Every structure is written in structure tokens, then in C-alpha cells.
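Can't paste images in this forum, so I'm doing it all in text. The chain is below; anyone willing to post the predicted C-alpha cells underneath?
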Amino acid sequence: MLQLKRMNTKRPDVKMAMRLLDEHFSDLGSRNMDKIMHHLNIEDDELKVVLQLLASLKMKPITEGTESFQANQQIMPDFIVSLDGDQLEVSLYRQRSASLHINQNWMENVKSTEDNAHSDKATKQYLRNKLNAAQWFVSAIKQREGTMLKVVRAIVKLQYEYFREGDIKLIKPMILKNVAEMVGVDISTVSRITCNKYISTPFGTLLLKDLFTEGIINQHGETISNRVIQTAIEEVIETEDKQKPYTDQQLVSILSQKGFSIARRTVAKYRELLQIPVAQMRALWA
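Text version of the structure:
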């Protein structure tokens, strides 16, 4: 609908397409064309024009817009993971603590003032408080960056195969609790550190939160990431007959043959997360 609103809404086909989606979306999904033509008072050839317009729209405009936005913004990563032989090295993109230090001359002046018996007591206390505050600040930054590195190194360790190969099928189930227990911090700490943070890898820049997925047990008794299931669904739909797309129940059967035993409602849930329409709608888009 948003794409249609960006067009010239005075065009008859655009106006009719907006009416169709607004008033007869469910009828479109069930392919009840006679009802649509009757209620909109249009002929078969007019309906074809409207359907052709709808078919020209992007199926996942939000996803595509987001991707292009991110690409244009040239995302600056917070962490870098690099492969050194068989070892994965994690570092901060910008390590603030490395450039933070307290001026040595100023520290000596503070000490000199404190040692001077003629110095004002209030002045001594003021300088000591400022020095303590500066030392605390530097220490806090170092501690924070140290915790950040521990958390991300734990993530990389848990997802070692994925970071080595870059194959999304190698992502393992991982939740905040797994990382928190491994590092010895609170779950909220892991959440804060990974929220809206990016990591640069040999195969691209990733949003850290995308690495956290729930697990599903496959037919071999192995726990796999639901991201792997979503990728499998996407691949099956990409190769389906566009004139006769698979229903969710057919997807269940196909996934079962691949070793993924999941319910139809789970397939529907993942399909919707991927912003892929139901089979009837995909047939109209063919």
C-alpha cells in the first residue's frame, strides 16, 4: 500500500489497486476474482491491469529499503573479527582506553601540592578529588571495553564454525543466557553490549543480535538454529514453480525430507518473518 501511495493516486489503475487491497485483500488471497469484479464494478481486462500493477510492486519493500539504507550509511562496526590461521581474533574497532591517560605533569603537580605543607587544605582536597575522578573514569572505560571484548569473544567462540566459513547454515542456537553464563555476567549486560552493535567479519558486517536464535531439534536429534530453518524455507520457495507455489503444508513435507520436522504453523510463522506471502498470493505475483 505504501508503494501505491507514492505513485500518482489520480491514475485509475492505482486508485483501483488501493481499493482492492483495502476492501478485498482476503478475496485476493483466495482468488475470488468474480466477487472482486462485482464489488469494484470492473471488467476482467481491467482487473488484469490492476493485478499487473500489483505484480510490479516489490514483495519486500521494507527489507530492501532497509538494506539499501544500511549500505548507503556505510555502517561503522564496533568490533572486528579476523582469521589468523585457525584462530579467530576479536578486537574493538575503536579502543578508547588505548588513548586515555592522565597527564603525568598534572599528576606530579597534584602530588607536589599535597606534599607542600603550605598548600591550602581545600585546594589539596579539590585536586585529589579531581585526580580520583579521572582515574576512576579511565578505569571504568578500560573495564567496560574489557567486558565488551569478553562478551563478543564468547559469541565468536560459540559460533566458531560460522565465523570461519561464513555459511549461515553453520549458525548454532544461541541465546543471551548462554553468553552471560560463559562470561560470568548478567543477561542484561550481554543485552546492552550487543544491542545495535555491529561486527566486521571476513564475509561482511553483521548485526550482533542477528546471531542470537532459538534452537529446534531435527530428525537426527541435533539442535539447530531456527535461522537455518528460515534459510531452508527461503531456498525452497526461491526454486518453486512460480505458477504453482508450495503451500505451507507442502513446505512442511519438503522440509521433513531435508531432516527438519516442524509444524505447519511454525512454517507459516517463519515465512511471515521472512515477509514471504502465502502461496495464493505468490501465484498472483508469478
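The first helix runs from residue 2 to 5. The chain has three domains: 2-57, 79-211, 215-284.
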